[in-house]
């Protein structure tokens, strides 16, 4: 990195000293990572890449010198620059993590891919389907890894949800119901759908492992803003599964909850719970088969069984994701949360936004 672009820095109170590396010290060559963006999420990436075995943070960038200084106070040995291109020009940096405002994701990720860097970009991958498609095409053309930072997919809770669904313990999935609401933060460059919904859309696609056929959405803007701060999204699937999402920046309390209803059992994921985040209920209905006359009578039997809360992997999700990204780079493996996965989320976001602007019109996805 050019010395003129480097700004040495010194120790931050927001972050405790990094504990031993995870999963363990490694003799493998380190993947040298540059982190672009030192606002809210960037410092978390710096901390976790610094802890991840087989990784080394080789530089950070932010256009705001004050943000650089904050990170530098806790990581004095990592050089920083106000020009992210300095990281792209550094031949010793092979991967870039992008943690900047959504409106800048495309430009920075594109520049990084063109510079021959592997890229981890914060969600959503871009602000339009076309931009996301270009990034996917660039990654393919340059032979670089493109991974989207859908951190929730690496939590013990979501890993367990996927396991329970794919093992058949819940039976056929009937519905997926998600609520992600809180007071703020109002964004200036995206509406509430683009800000909050990517988390739960990525969970839905990863856990159910199938794509919707249509979407509809309703939303509104309050407080004199042009960005919708409240929205309801509904996804339909060709097998009669229904998914519903409630996202809101204007709620009196913070709620992070997903309910998956299955034929055999039902699951509740409450991310605000400190201990029992996943609860599996042996509850449901049984419908007796009878003659035509009996169908019109009450033939439903309600099953109420036990509730269990399975043990979850407590490892920090972002740390696992940083290790996984480095492994994919080092071993030339395609990540499951790759550019195509990020593109699918953006495809839903864009269609939902179109539906919302047309009073909830149903928008079908092309096959």
TrEMBL record:
Q: Which SUPFAM superfamilies match?
A: Glyceraldehyde-3-phosphate dehydrogenase-like, C-terminal domain, NAD(P)-binding Rossmann-fold domains
Chain ranges of the GFO/IDH/MocA-like oxidoreductase domain: 159-267
Pfam families the record matches: GFO_IDH_MocA, GFO_IDH_MocA_C3
- Where does the record place the Gfo/Idh/MocA-like oxidoreductase N-terminal domain? 31-150
Q: Which InterPro entries match?
A: Gfo/Idh/MocA-like_OxRdtase_N, Gfo/Idh/MocA_Oxidoreductases, GFO_IDH_MocA-like_dom, NAD(P)-bd_dom_sf
GO MF annotation list? nucleotide binding
Q: From the record, what ranges are coiled-coil? A: none
Q: Provide the protein name.
A: Oxidoreductase, Gfo/Idh/MocA family
